[in-house]
Amino acid sequence: MYTRILVPVDDIGTSGRALHEAIAVATDQHATLRLLHVINERDVVGAVFSGTGVDEQTGAPRTSWQDIGQRVLARAATVAHYGGIEAETVLIESGGKPLPDLVVEEAERWGADLIVMGTHGQRNLTLLLLGSVALGVVRRTNIPVMLIH
Q: For residue 84, is it left (φ>0), alpha (ψ between -120 and 50) or beta?
């Protein structure tokens, strides 16, 4: 029986599908759901250097990445709420650490007994060379991981 389910969330469709599956499992198992969003500094730096994340006149960030992360978590918590689950949320910054490490660390720190996350199901050279967050989590933890395409 699962009692603590961790769900990493972002703005990508696969994490939304994973969230819906986690809600179903949490409902069935009467489990607590924790939603995790990680601010990845590589995305922040990329947005700043590409100009997409900064105000053209002042050079300041258009919106703080913490605000964006909080909005992602709020949307996911609302989905959970409408699914009948009151979810906890946590926002962390990567600090340059690999995303799979951060997901596993949070799962272990919180005492999760299931991680539910989305995956793109990539099987190409990019995945072979770079790996994926989902694959990295599976390789780094003994906690059961449910992957949703």
A: left
